[in-house]
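Example (one chain per record):
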Amino acid sequence: MFEERYQFWLTSPYFDEATKEELANIQDKKEIEDRFYTDLEFGTGGMRGVLGAGTNRMNIYVIRKVTQGLADLIRENGGQNKGVVIAYDSRHYSAVFARETALVLARNGIKAYLFTSLRPTPELSFAVRFLRAQAGVVITASHNPKEYNGYKVYWEDGGQVPPRRADQIIAYMNLHKRWDDIFPLPEDEARAQGLLVEIGEDIDQQYLTQIKELALYPDLAREKGKNLNIAYTPLHGAGKELVKRLLTELGYNLITVPEQETEDPDFTTVPYPNPEIPSAFDLVKKYGTQHNAQILIATDPDADRMGVALQTAPGEYKQLTGNQIGIILTYYLLTQKQKLGLLPADPVVIKTIASTDLVDELAQALGVKVENVLTGFKFIGEKVQEMNRLRSGTFQFGFEESYGYLAGDYARDKDAVGTSLLLAEAVLYYQEKEGRTLFQVLEEIYQKYGYYLDDQISLTFTGKEGKEKIAGIMAKLRQRSVDSLGGIPLEAIEDYQLGIGKKLAEPERTYELKLPKSNVLRFSFQGGGFVMARPSGTEPKIKFYFNLKGKEPADLEKTLAGVKKDLLELVNA
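Predicted structure:
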């Protein structure tokens, strides 16, 4: 089958000459198979893949097909007059794919609101809500390496499309089997018919106004903000204008990294543009040292993830984990709102099941409910929407351990722009009002609730064989009988694919998991903490999450090494 598809793309007049030339130059039959054995998968929020020609790659023809599926769904719902908002980041072909998306929608009589230049993904979520659009699309591969790009779809609530809508888009895509029957409307016609509308500064103003309302102590920033030196890098991405504008307008002293403000789709200054990795901070550390910055901030190319490093001594910085940022911001927001009388009667924090259990303990002690959802910020956005609809709680903060955070009701996706404000304010508040650093605040939290150590291992397996290998690992973990890891006894094992959990003390009894079905295994330890296994939804990887609890940090390091060893022995057995 893949040979037929390959020949069709090689010979049909529908495909451009550059595409045909790229395909004709492939000598390896396995690569041809990998490009054509399947269609690039559309998951819950959209699709992401390596750039290149073929049905299993990111290119304008795949963009056309998925956009046509979206257009069919919008027309079925009668939302063509409400329009679709489109944003994009700095990656290869992002602007091209965004325009192609707009013009295929226009061909279907659907108005496209296209940002004039790159914008953060959370601003797209905000714009969908602000413009009362039917849907939104952002062209991005988030923090993936330069070879990738992606297509994320949002619905009218500003959240990523839920599984039901995703399935409908897939069904419509599958109706277009030929690939050569989808055409964009010429741009001049789209403009003349009012179906292509460019947006920019007007939305920026509204978005930043909403974010500024997150500040608990705006006067403190105006009076003392110059005492806080912040060094910032957008890692060649979409955060460069708005993060800089936001923090300087609020009164902070911001230093940016000029080499990383350029829109470089090859991300030549970093191995790959992920604020989780220490090397992403190499250049910003240099500027932070020069200007004695107390805090370093890095955002990924579409500015939805944010990483932070804090000064420990002049010229020395220590990076926070995603969980540590989530712990600090949860604690800061809840305790300060309590102090200011701003905490509502029914506050709720939402986090993913891959994120630290420490937040559950902390929030419970403060009388705040915690909702746990599946991994992926789309599920946090869904829960916020559900709570609003049912009036079942007031959202305060949401986070996932992979550096995604949101406070406020203006968007339904993680937002590095808004989080940069909150983090800066927390540093300034503790520095100016209490004479403490965030590390000292974190230590106080650990002293109260126990030390937690978190880590992650990702194993990469590419291509068709890699997909099968990952499936095999998950199947093996389900079959093996495990009652401890690293010498720590397990309390429970939860299989989210089956929707069943069991306490090891009562193995014959099971309990129902309330979350949607997902290919996830979570092993919970007696006394707190967990290990979790989950195939990535956006990369050819299987991820293992570790969150361990203990009394002494030094002991936890040894425990973590033992837990990893036992888990990898299970995987490699």
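Caption: The first strand starts at residue 46 and ends at 50.
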